[in-house]
Amino acid sequence: MKIAMFVSEAVPFAKTGGLADVGAALPLALEYCGCQVIVIMPKYKCVEKSKVKIKRLSEDISYAIIGREIKVYFIENDAYFKREGLYVDRKGDYADNLERFSFFCRRSLDLLKEIDFCPDILHLHDWQASLAAVYLKSVYNTQSFYKRIKCLLTIHNIGYQGIFAQEEFAKLKLDKKLFDINGLEFYNKINLLKGGVIFSDFINTVSPTYAKEIQTKEYGFGLEGLLGERKDVLSGILNGIDYSVWDPDKDEFIFQNFSEVCIEFKTPNKEDLQRTVGLPLNKDLPVLGIVSRLAEQKGFDIFVQSLDELAKLDLQLVILGTGDAKYHQLLKAIAKKYPQKISLHLEFNDPLAHKIYAGSDIFLMPSRYEPCGLGQLISLRYGTIPLVYKTGGLADTINKRNGFVFDKYSAEELQSIIKKALAVFKNKKKWNQLIENAMDCNFSWKASADKYIALYAKAKER
User: Fold this and answer.
1) Sign of CA dihedral 347, 323, 9, 23
2) Residues 21-73: tens digit of each pLDDT
């Protein structure tokens, strides 16, 4: 099967979030399963900093190769893409994002014909690539090359939809009739993700539970009605994790390698983490780790409310991440108040992240909503027990066999489930069983790729 992916970021070339990990890992897994895959993305300024060799194809197209023979094509336009940020600068979203990504979508569609790669499936990711489905079905549909191509749109986070002023619609060079309630119009504005949902043959998101949640008013961000109408072609497939990167048996960042057959080697990593972050060395004291964006969506409203109460308990907290300024200030104040209990690191620090996953006993992830989540999947691999709110991908991956789950979103419920986890921690037999169950979980990209291939087959037949 031939797959063309349009994605706005992919490691190691450009990254702002988890989309970039999927943008690289899924094509690699699909290639392993026998698919012929290409990836098309913008050539941002940061692309040149990657260590992968980039070759010239034409005046405005270059490419690199990942995996065995996956070509990653870069759409070049210095006026649009040669900037420090991908989507924003310090002032906020780039004012010309509509033009930037409409250009990306059209130029990517043209490129398919230029390189004579006619895919069975055009796999689009998020609002930045959604216009490709609109153009494919309304502009390019008269050309025989494009007529048989089917579209799959993956929604990674429905909170980001690509919304612009209606006055900019002419820049899209689309029929004016498409700016209505059955097209891209959304409360008198342009909504690119809505266009993708309407014009794609199939839609999926990154966990089965999130696929259901986005059909509700609470989680649908205004598109719940449309998604409900398209529920027959809407599904959820969990993201995977790259076990070549996240493997405690081979991880070069951690103090002592370990595996499910020698979990006792996890203990030296705990002591190394305590030493690294400046907390008192105590292997019997439970360490709770957080690696996260510091934002309300990630549960930091109820977490911050809980910190004074948690500081009374026999535990230690290690927090790594950056995010909203108000949480930076609140966490700085509380960490200063309890220096023997809380170690705060307001930064991006990949080696420290690995140490937190390996050395913590419990991994906190109380997200208000979480389309998929990777942190809980990584922590399972390292035998660090996830403690999560029952939502999205967290609900699909964590249960009483491998973690702790609370289902009422409040500071009181968060405190209650943490206290329950601490009680279980004291029972070493039960705790070691939890660790074994956690490390036995398999969330590889191979399993996810198999499900995508099945979905591609359905779309191809549609």
Assistant:
1) positive
2) 899 999 999 999 999 999 999 999 999 888 899 999 999 999 999 999 999 99
CB atoms within 10 A of CB 454: 11
Task: Report the percent of the chain where pLDDT is more than 70.
Answer: 100
Residue type, 359: G
- Has residue 242 got a pLDDT over 90? no
376 within 8 A of 388, measured Cβ to Cβ: yes
Comparing 2-240+446-461 with 263-442, is the CATH topology the same?
yes
Q: Is the model's pTM score more than 0.90? A: yes
User: Is 217 within 8 Å of 234 (Cβ atoms)?
Assistant: no
Determine the topology of domain 263-442 in CATH: Rossmann fold (3.40.50)
C-alpha to C-alpha distance for 197 and 192, rounded to whole angstroms: 9
Q: In a 3-state reduction of DSSP, which class is residue 166?
A: helix
pLDDT tens, residue by residue, 180-217:
999 999 999 999 999 999 999 999 999 999 999 999 99
Question: Residue 204 and residue 453: Cα distance in Å, rounded?
Answer: 13
408 close to 299: Cβ distance less than 8 angstroms: no
- Return the pLDDT at 418: 98
The pair of structure tokens assigned to 244 is 């070549």
Rounded to an integer, what distance in angstroms lies between the CA atom of residue 435 and that of residue 87?
A: 40
Listed residue (373, 402, 372) closest to 385, CA to CA:
402
Are the beta carbons of 39 and 10 closer than 8 angstroms? yes
Q: Could you tell me which residues are beta bridge partners of residue 4?
A: 38, 122
**What is the assigned CATH class of domain 2-240+446-461?**
alpha beta
CA distances to 26, 359, 373, 384, 452 from 66, in Å? 12, 32, 25, 31, 20
Q: Reduce the secondary structure of 303-350 to three states and give it as a string.
A: HHHHHHHHCCCCCEEEEECCECHHHHHHHHHHHHHCCCCEEEECCCCH
- What's the whole-number average pLDDT of the chain? 96
Cis peptide leading into 339, omega within 30 of 0? no
Q: Which residue has the tokens 């579209």?
A: 151
Pair of tokens at residue 19: 């989309």
Is residue 164 within 8 A of residue 98, CB to CB? The reply is yes
Element (H, E) at 378: helix 375-381
The domains of the chain are located at 2-240+446-461, 263-442
